Amino acid sequence: MDSYFYIILFSTISAMSRGLISVIDRYQIGYKKQSVLKVNFSNNLYTLLFIIISFFYINVNDLFTMILNYKIIIYSILVQIVAVGYSKLFKRLSIFESAIVSKTAVFFIPLALFFTTGRINFGNYFISILTTIIIIIWVKKKSDLKTLLHGVIIIVPPLVIQACLFPLLVGDYKKY
Asked: Residue 151: CB partners within 8 Å, gap ≥ 6?
């Protein structure tokens, strides 16, 4: 029962941290026009602090093995590419448009996961297709499609590649 508590606790902290970082990123990059590299570097310092704190709670050998694994390093690079993509997106589009553009990735991610795992949940995929089509129809009336298409080109490929490679790169670390 203790392990479930910690999973829920760390998942909640992770979600709150990610949401907070997203808001800060949008403010710093989108409104204050700060450097993408500087903002992402700061975000990575917070992650490094979390890893240092984790040393007190996780077996150090397991942590080093995981951190130094080439698959984790490749996945970390993909995460950084997605972060830089979002940073560029926040500079070019409003928060609303950024969210809409990101939503289009949901159309492709189940296919990417099917490509690497051989499994697909058709019910979930149907919902993905339906919600993406509804959003595209709704946005078509409210935004410039050319601007949104540029946003799709910036963020959707990295998101889909990250989703596609996730099971291959970090599937062995599910328990962590």
From this structure: 89, 92, 93, 97, 98, 101
- Are the C-beta atoms of residues 65 and 73 closer than 8 Å to each other? no
**Distance in angstroms (rounded) separating the CA atoms of residues 70 and 74:** 6
User: pLDDT, tens digit, for every residue of 84-137?
Assistant: 788 778 778 876 777 778 888 888 888 888 888 888 888 878 887 887 788 777
- 48 to each of 19, 51, 53, 55, 167, how far by Cα in Å? 18, 5, 9, 11, 24
Closest to 29 measured CA to CA, from 21, 159, 15: 21
d(CA 9, CA 27): 27
Spatial contact of 165 and 159, defined as CB atoms under 8 Å apart: no
Nearest to 14 by CA among 47, 61, 42, 52: 47
Question: Could you tell me which of 96, 92, 95 has the C-alpha nearest to residue 84?
Answer: 92
Q: What is the pTM of this model?
A: 0.63
DSSP 8-state class, residue 173: G
Cβ–Cβ < 8 Å for 63, 122: no
The whole-angstrom distance between residue 22's C-alpha and the CA centroid of its chain comes to: 10
Task: Tell me how many degrees the CA angle 43-47-51 measures, rounded to the nearest 5.
Answer: 165
